[in-house]
């Protein structure tokens, strides 16, 4: 029997070993506890190797080129990062570099470094460390959002110049799908099940006993066994810190939500970029960027940018505020729905990066002096801060707190019950 401790509602459950293709969902909050994959090692390894080749191509050849009145600017994937640094916006440059190049590249490299020895039958337990790092990097790869940023940028420039796609762009688009497929076909148990465990921590928690679940590798350990093994707060399998609840979750989330709300105002009031075209200057805020797209009858893109840049950050902050207040008032109102709301904030936050990428791409493409140039402005820095801070705020909120008030008898000491298994 495999034991699961739901990371979102803390319900202890056990299930028989899964057939390939089956999914285990939490019986209480329907969180996906585990998804078993057939031939996971072969499929994931093949996709990851293909991804590495595509990653090298995407970073080595021209990405987009900008042609205006006989002048051509050619860019690579990383040109925008350097242009932002030249303009003194290094904070934004670092975020863009990390989310669009470093995180996806590291994910691929770490995955290959773990899966190749596994395939060759030479797995050693220390490989749990690069694999753990890979798991931590998952939320930070945002190439798909970058692609939407490219679409918006190209539309914005169609009146001004001709934009030509380079080899890298095609490799980049294929890479997005290859990496997404590799991530979804990967069964993490492939790696975790090879890590040897000391005898006491292999025990299944007894009814009524306090157990801790690892947020990285799903290992469930009775806290008594943890003390016996001499491990007080580290996961015996992957080494991540184990917490009954995320430490100081409410204080941290409050602080981050308040900081993000404060930055939200300058992010929307200050211009995010200044466009110089034939000597005349025009500053754009996030909202005026949306209006520009509307005036050019690009309402689907206008809607995308409005939702991603204005609606989503505010919605996310309001949901987090609601969750914080409801937890502090020890509300018992609809814990399942509140857990779902939390899941929404985790999923949508990254899409707000679209406008940050648009600024990066425009700054990289358009620098022909007085003829045409685009400068990143302070609004972009504040906006980037809002997006990153809200992502951290959602990460520091512990959804198990929602359940603590609703069903105190259902904390992790509960009698194990069967989760929902679907083939
Ligand atoms: Zn649950
Ligand atoms: Zn672990």
Automatic annotation (TrEMBL):
<feature type="transmembrane region" description="Helical">
    <location>
        <begin position="161"/>
        <end position="182"/>
    </location>
</feature>
<dbReference type="GO" id="GO:0005886">
    <property type="term" value="C:plasma membrane"/>
</dbReference>
<feature type="transmembrane region" description="Helical">
    <location>
        <begin position="254"/>
        <end position="278"/>
    </location>
</feature>
<protein>
    <submittedName>
        <fullName>Integral membrane protein, PqiA family</fullName>
    </submittedName>
</protein>
<dbReference type="Pfam" id="PF04403">
    <property type="entry name" value="PqiA"/>
</dbReference>
<feature type="transmembrane region" description="Helical">
    <location>
        <begin position="45"/>
        <end position="64"/>
    </location>
</feature>
<dbReference type="InterPro" id="IPR007498">
    <property type="entry name" value="PqiA-like"/>
</dbReference>
<keyword id="KW-0812">Transmembrane</keyword>
<keyword id="KW-1133">Transmembrane helix</keyword>
<feature type="transmembrane region" description="Helical">
    <location>
        <begin position="92"/>
        <end position="116"/>
    </location>
</feature>
<feature type="transmembrane region" description="Helical">
    <location>
        <begin position="298"/>
        <end position="327"/>
    </location>
</feature>
<comment type="similarity">
    <text>Belongs to the PqiA family.</text>
</comment>
<keyword id="KW-1003">Cell membrane</keyword>
<keyword id="KW-0997">Cell inner membrane</keyword>
<keyword id="KW-0472">Membrane</keyword>
<dbReference type="InterPro" id="IPR005219">
    <property type="entry name" value="PqiA-like_proteobact"/>
</dbReference>
<feature type="transmembrane region" description="Helical">
    <location>
        <begin position="137"/>
        <end position="155"/>
    </location>
</feature>
<feature type="transmembrane region" description="Helical">
    <location>
        <begin position="348"/>
        <end position="368"/>
    </location>
</feature>
<feature type="transmembrane region" description="Helical">
    <location>
        <begin position="380"/>
        <end position="397"/>
    </location>
</feature>
<dbReference type="InterPro" id="IPR051800">
    <property type="entry name" value="PqiA-PqiB_transport"/>
</dbReference>
